[in-house]
Design a protein that fits this description.
single chain, about 170 residues, mainly alpha, 7 helices
């Protein structure tokens, strides 16, 4: 369900940012493992689970969106198009996660190189892994926030939906 007020939306954003930080810490820890590829596999797995969870918390998972009335679906779809998000409101695939990680590719490459230097390299790799995950995760949170905020604002201009099973119009 979409957050109904800006206060609820802010609460969801705050909780999602905490979630991103926790997952980024796991990514940073996985970066310390000196086995090639373990950290990248961990990042892909973490994001493949994190991004759908963020979508769901904001009410933007594909399954949730199917339940919305036609007016609400249109508002959400327009919001996604305006923001240009690659992951909000979409099914998250391994390929999509890899595309998103490529956006922070320099950090990922530096992380791979740094982890082979004793101690300081592992600390650097952990910091870069944490930072890359925070960038991708927080970008998703910001995109979802803007989409839902626009939807809340625009829905205040619509007449109430005639379908009682659909979510009510959101107040502005």
């Amino acid at each position: 369900m979409l957050p109904m007020t800006l206060e609820e939306l802010e609460s969801v954003r705050k909780n999602c940012r905490k979630l991103v930080t926790r997952r980024a810490a796991i990514s940073g820890a996985a970066s310390v493992v000196p086995i090639p590829g373990v950290d990248i596999a961990a990042d892909v797995s973490l994001l493949a689970n994190l991004l759908p969870e963020i979508n769901e918390r904001f009410g933007l998972s594909p399954a949730q969106m199917e339940e919305y009335n036609p007016q609400m679906k249109m508002l959400v779809a327009n919001g996604i198009l305006q923001i240009g998000s690659r992951a909000a409101g979409k099914w998250i695939t391994k390929e999509l996660v890899i595309q998103l990680l490529k956006k922070v590719g320099v950090r990922i490459t530096a992380k791979q190189a740094a982890k082979y230097l004793p101690l300081i390299g592992q600390a650097t790799a952990a910091a870069l892994g944490f930072g890359a995950m925070k960038i991708v995760g927080n970008q998703m949170v910001d995109d979802c926030y803007r989409i839902v905020k626009n939807t809340i604002e625009e829905s205040g201009k619509l007449p109430p939906p005639d379908d009682r099973s659909a979510p009510p119009s959101l107040p502005s």
